[in-house]
Amino acid sequence: MDFAKLAAERYSLRKFSDRPVEAEKLSAVLEAGRNAPTAHNLQPQRIFVLQSAEALEKVDGCTGAHFHPPVMLMVAYDPAVAWKREDDGKNHGEIDAAIAATQMMLQAADLGLGTTYVGMFDPEKLHAAFPELAGLTPIALLPLGYPAEGAHPSRLHADRKPLEELVKYL
To answer: In sequence order, what are the residues at sequence separation of 6 or more whose Cβ sits closer than 8 angstroms to the Cβ of residue 36?
Structure first.
């Protein structure tokens, strides 16, 4: 698929099949996150693959978004590792992790998988449920899997503002 088509057709999947995600496809998605550009190449993104019934149940208790995917990617960053802008100290870890999440979502779509970016979670509950997050800041949950039969983009998917409203040439 060409990139413009991929970017336009990728949608937030909210209805997952119970079909398992093949290890090679999961690896390709994770590799896309590993290869994401980061500020000063410091690579502060941390990705947790939740696929056991226990881990999926624990994460489900930390969010109001219940899609029941076969795999959940928990995307976080290490603020101690991330680049801080010299002028004001802004930590770019969240930006770096979001770029990694975006690349993983696009790679998943290219492989016939679906995702949605879930920001609706309780960070304190995630930290309590997953001690592996100590010192890290979670930014997103990415449910990952195959679309269930009848899954489709939301009615708002194709609603896009005109380019002239979003872009200014100076």
So the answer is: 45, 96, 99, 100, 102, 103
Task: Enter the pTM of the model.
Answer: 0.94
pLDDT band, very low/low/confident/very high, at 156 (cuts 50, 70, 90): confident
Report the alpha-carbon distance of residue 107 to residue 151 in Å, rounded: 19
Helix (H) or strand (E) holding 58: helix 53-60
What are the pLDDT digits (tens) for 132-145? Answer: 999 999 999 999 99
From the list 37, 27, 10, the residue with the least C-alpha distance to 117 is 10
User: Quick count: other Cβ atoms within 10 Å of Cβ 72?
Assistant: 24
Buried b or exposed e, range 125-135, using 16+ CB within 10 angstroms:
ebbebbeebee
CB 143 within 8 A of CB 116: yes
Residue whose tokens read 């770029």: 99
